[in-house]
Amino acid sequence: MAETYSECLFCQIGQRETPAEIVHASDAVVAFRDINPQAPTHILIIPKDHIESAADLTKDHRGLLWDIFETAAHLAKAEGVAQSGWRLVTNVGPNAGQSVPHLHFHLLGGRTMRWPPG
Ligand code: 5GP
Ligand code: ZN
């Protein structure tokens, strides 16, 4: 069952209690534009359930992960970046710069990306 936290920003967005520019939603997943975009396409894909980070995923989340990756490929097409390429990244913990403790995948596209990331 869905478990969400009223004090968590991304739980609030998933529950439509805090506004965001939502571009895709299903039973388990919500995708919305990042408020501070780092590329022409910068979308955050989150589970509606509160999961703190990728470090907290279990085998029970297999279906959820499939939904997230399918959503990413679908949105890359919809954004017109499927051919030019895109990046899907999730930050875990302070050194990676995770600033919101609710699992989210950044879908980035529309410009050339550097590697390694800063
Ligand atoms: P992190 O740094 O945790 O990997 O990514 C968090 C992301 O959430 C950042 O890119 C930040 O711009 C975005 N963000 C933070 N607060 C909000 C908000 O209220 N609305 C939206 N749409 N994005 C947010
Ligand atoms: Zn949450």
Poorly predicted tracts of residues: none
Percent range for β-strand residues: 15-25%
Small molecules held by this entry: guanosine-5'-monophosphate, zinc ion
The gyration radius over C-alpha positions equals 14 Å
SSE order, one letter for each helix or strand: HEEEHEE
Spatial order of strands in the largest sheet:
1-2-3-5-4
The CATH topology corresponds to: HIT family, subunit A
Please describe the biggest sheet, giving its number of strands, its sense, and whether it closes into a barrel.
5 strands, antiparallel
Q: List the domain count as a whole number.
A: 1
Q: How far apart are the termini?
A: 37 Å
| CATH level-two architecture | 2-Layer Sandwich
Structural class by helix and strand composition: alpha+beta
Indicate the CATH class. Alpha Beta
Given the C-alpha coordinates, what overall shape results? globular
- Helix % is 10-25%
Mean pLDDT: 96
Compute the number of helices. 2
